[in-house]
From TrEMBL:
This is Tryptophan synthase beta chain-like PALP domain-containing protein. SUPFAM superfamilies: Tryptophan synthase beta subunit-like PLP-dependent enzymes (SSF53686). It comes from Tessaracoccus aquimaris. Residues 19-300 form the Tryptophan synthase beta chain-like PALP domain. Gene3D superfamilies: 3.40.50.1100.
Length: 361
C-alpha cells in the first residue's frame, strides 16, 4: 500500500509545479525583418529557471516509481540551474540534496544552492560530473535523478509541459502559430518535448536548436553519429562534450552553432530592452535573428518563439564581468552595441552575416 508520505509528497510537487503560468515577452525587432519574436519567460518560476519543469518531472517520476522515500538523499549532475530547481523541490519535501557541479559554476548559483540547503560537490575540469554522481549514488538510500539520461523520457510531452503552455498562451493572445521555435540543448529534453508535442497536436512549427561552440550536439546532428565528441561548453547550461541520451537529433529541423561571444552579446543586448537573462537566452536571441534574416514567408510576417531560460542575476560575477570573460577567452568588442542598434532599426551587424556564423540552410 502506498505510504501517506508518498501521497503528501506527490501533492507537494504538484502544487509547487502548478504555480501561475510564466508570461510571454515580446522582443522588439526592426520592421524590415518582417518577423515577430515572442519569448516565454521561464525565469519567473519559483526556482528561477526553465529547469523548474524538468525537476518536477524527474522527482514526480521518482516518487510515483517508488524510488524516492522519506529520509532519502537526492542528487544530480548539473551545471547549476537544474540542481537549483531540484534543490528547491527537495527542500519542500524535507529531503537532502547533493549537487554535483563543475567547479567553474558561477558563484551566485553555488550560493543559491547552498541557500536551499543543498550540498555542493565541485568537480574540476576534465572529470565527468556524471561519473562522480553515479559513484555517489551507489550509497544506500540515495537516488540519482540523472537529468542527462532522463530529461526526454520522464517529461510528459502530451500535456502539462512548456510546449502545451506556450501554444495555449499564443492562441489566447491570437499570435500566429510560430514558424520556428528556437531553444538551446543542455540535456535535449526541452527540444524533444516541444517537437513531440507539436507533432502530436499537428502544429506546423519547426524546431531549431542553438548550440555553443564545440558542442557535440551540433556535430552529431550534422553527421548523424551519436559517437561525436566535443569540447566543454563555455555557455553555462547548454552544450555538451558528449551526446547525452536525452538528445534526439531526429526531432530537430535545424541546428545553429552560435559563437560564444555572440551568446554573451545577445544576453547583454536583451538587458537593454528590460530582459535580464542568462547567456543561454542570448544564444536563443542570436539563433532567432539568424532565422529571421533568412527571410520572411512570402506575403506575411514570420513568427518566432523562444525561451528566457533563467535570471541574469545568477551571472553577475561571470558573464556580467568582462575580466572573468577574458579569462575564459571571450572578449567583447562592439557586438553588444551593434545588436542594440540593429534591434532599434540600424544596420545588420556584419557578424550576423559573415562566415563565422553559419546561416541555416
Amino acid at each position: 500500500m502506498r505510504s501517506d508520505w508518498v501521497s503528501r509528497a506527490v501533492e507537494v510537487v504538484r502544487s509547487c509545479a502548478l504555480e501561475e503560468e510564466t508570461p510571454l515577452v515580446e522582443v522588439p525587432l526592426p520592421d524590415r525583418l518582417g518577423a515577430r519574436l515572442v519569448m516565454k519567460d521561464e525565469s519567473q518560476h519559483p526556482s528561477g529557471s526553465l529547469k523548474h519543469r524538468l525537476a518536477a518531472s524527474l522527482i514526480m517520476f521518482g516518487l510515483c516509481n517508488g524510488d524516492i522515500r522519506p529520509g532519502g538523499t537526492l542528487l544530480d549532475a548539473s551545471s547549476g540551474s537544474t540542481a537549483i530547481s531540484e534543490a528547491y523541490f527537495a527542500r519542500e519535501l524535507g529531503l537532502d540534496f547533493v549537487a554535483v557541479i563543475p567547479a567553474a559554476t558561477s558563484p551566485e548559483k553555488i550560493r543559491l544552492l547552498e541557500g536551499l540547503g543543498a550540498r555542493c560537490e565541485l568537480v574540476e575540469g576534465g572529470v565527468s560530473v556524471t561519473a562522480v554522481a553515479e559513484e555517489l549514488a551507489a550509497q544506500p538510500g540515495w537516488v540519482y535523478l540523472d537529468q542527462f539520461a532522463n530529461a526526454s523520457t520522464r517529461t510528459n510531452w502530451r500535456e502539462g509541459n512548456v510546449a502545451s503552455a506556450l501554444f495555449a498562451q499564443l492562441d489566447a493572445q491570437q499570435i500566429r502559430c510560430p514558424d520556428w521555435i528556437v531553444v538551446g540543448a543542455g540535456t535535449g529534453g526541452t527540444s524533444a518535448t516541444i517537437a513531440r508535442f507539436a507533432r502530436y497536436r499537428a502544429r506546423r512549427s519547426s524546431v531549431a536548436v542553438v548550440d555553443p561552440e564545440g558542442s557535440a550536439f551540433y556535430k552529431a546532428w550534422r553527421s548523424g553519429s551519436r559517437d561525436e565528441v566535443g569540447s566543454t561548453s563555455r555557455i553555462e547550461g547548454i552544450g555538451r562534450s558528449v551526446v547525452e541520451a536525452s538528445f534526439m537529433p531526429q526531432l530537430i529541423d535545424e541546428m545553429i552553432q552560435v559563437p560564444d561571444v555572440l551568446s554573451v552579446a545577445g544576453m547583454r543586448a536583451l538587458k537593454e530592452f528590460g530582459i535580464d537573462a542568462g547567456p543561454s537566452t542570448g544564444t536563443n536571441l542570436i539563433g532567432s535573428l539568424l532565422l529571421a534574416l533568412r527571410g520572411r514567408p512570402e506575403g506575411r510576417t514570420m513568427t518566432l518563439a523562444s525561451l528566457i531560460c533563467d535570471r541574469g542575476e545568477r551571472y553577475a560575477d561571470t558573464y556580467g564581468d568582462d575580466a572573468w570573460l577574458a579569462r575564459q577567452g571571450i572578449v567583447l568588442g562592439d557586438e553588444v552595441q551593434s545588436l542594440v542598434d540593429f534591434l532599434h532599426g540600424g544596420d545588420v551587424p556584419s557578424f550576423l552575416t559573415d562566415a563565422r556564423v553559419p546561416v541555416p540552410m
